[in-house]
From TrEMBL:
<feature type="binding site">
    <location>
        <position position="232"/>
    </location>
    <ligand>
        <name>a divalent metal cation 1</name>
    </ligand>
</feature>
<keyword id="KW-0031">Aminopeptidase</keyword>
<comment type="subunit">
    <text>Monomer.</text>
</comment>
<feature type="binding site">
    <location>
        <position position="77"/>
    </location>
    <ligand>
        <name>substrate</name>
    </ligand>
</feature>
<dbReference type="Pfam" id="PF00557">
    <property type="entry name" value="Peptidase_M24"/>
</dbReference>
<feature type="binding site">
    <location>
        <position position="94"/>
    </location>
    <ligand>
        <name>a divalent metal cation 1</name>
    </ligand>
</feature>
<comment type="similarity">
    <text>Belongs to the peptidase M24A family. Methionine aminopeptidase type 1 subfamily.</text>
</comment>
<feature type="binding site">
    <location>
        <position position="175"/>
    </location>
    <ligand>
        <name>substrate</name>
    </ligand>
</feature>
<feature type="binding site">
    <location>
        <position position="105"/>
    </location>
    <ligand>
        <name>a divalent metal cation 1</name>
    </ligand>
</feature>
<feature type="binding site">
    <location>
        <position position="232"/>
    </location>
    <ligand>
        <name>a divalent metal cation 2</name>
    </ligand>
</feature>
<keyword id="KW-0479">Metal-binding</keyword>
<keyword id="KW-0378">Hydrolase</keyword>
<dbReference type="InterPro" id="IPR002467">
    <property type="entry name" value="Pept_M24A_MAP1"/>
</dbReference>
<keyword id="KW-0645">Protease</keyword>
<dbReference type="InterPro" id="IPR036005">
    <property type="entry name" value="Creatinase/aminopeptidase-like"/>
</dbReference>
<dbReference type="GO" id="GO:0004239">
    <property type="term" value="F:initiator methionyl aminopeptidase activity"/>
</dbReference>
<feature type="binding site">
    <location>
        <position position="201"/>
    </location>
    <ligand>
        <name>a divalent metal cation 2</name>
    </ligand>
</feature>
Amino acid sequence: MITRKSAREIEHMQKAGDLLVACHKKISELIRPGITTMEIDSFVDRFLEEHGAVPEQKGYNGYPYATCASLNDEICHGFPTNTPLKNGDIVTIDMVVNLNGGLADSAWTYAVGEVDEKGKRLMEVTKEALYKGIEQAVPGKRIGDIGHAIQTYAEGEGFSVVREFTGHGIGPTIHEDPHIPHYGLPNKGARLKEGMVITIEPMINEGAWQSKLDDNGWTARTIDGGRSAQYEHTLAITKDGPIILTDQDK
């Protein structure tokens, strides 16, 4: 069932989003060759605790960490590890913050040191694809309009769009209806309405879009070893347009 949030609920989610943004900005200062994603995960755990929040995905369906840390060919749900990051890596840090019952979800792909030109372009296109999807998140549009905008742009730039993992509704739990695919046809799917709060989180690959699952039952990676990037925002749909609750550019 698709739920619509009150102004008060969205206000609570905005506060969680502000905290999540502050955490991501700290992470951007930490990312460098030599640091481990386990150290980043420990930092996030401490940061949220110090600010009266909890990492909502820790324990969700048995997931053991505060963050997902997906490296290079890992598409999503990568486990933090004690392996130091190397110059030229790209790593996506994804987290869900619960602040007094308000939820916010955002992933960001970071360059570790100096990344090659194709890796930089992958990151640029993925981020731009996110915002092209957000432009479609207005009352009266349909879910397919979001996916179509993302797919046509990303594929036009020579990259592929992951199909198996989608955006979603959020609040009061992590994953709610509706699913938000990052591909599809315009004018198809459920109609977007004021008060819906959703995530848009395109995962864009260098090579094939298909994924395979690691033995841990969580981590998805590309089938051909190509790199994958992801950028994600939580946003509220309003009569005045989408409000990005995890906006890093305020």
